[in-house]
What we know:
Blueprint: E1 13-15, E2 21-23
Antiparallel strand pairs: 1-2
Amino acid sequence: MALPVGQQAPDFTLKSSKMQEVSLSSFRGRNVLLLFVPLAFTGG
């Protein structure tokens, strides 16, 4: 899903590296950098 530049991302929840649920909305007002590493920790 592509968003136009400047549009807010929809809220979502992911698990942290410590397996705790973290929501994007908990970082409201701060800069956020998301890093997706496909096939991390796999043989691929």
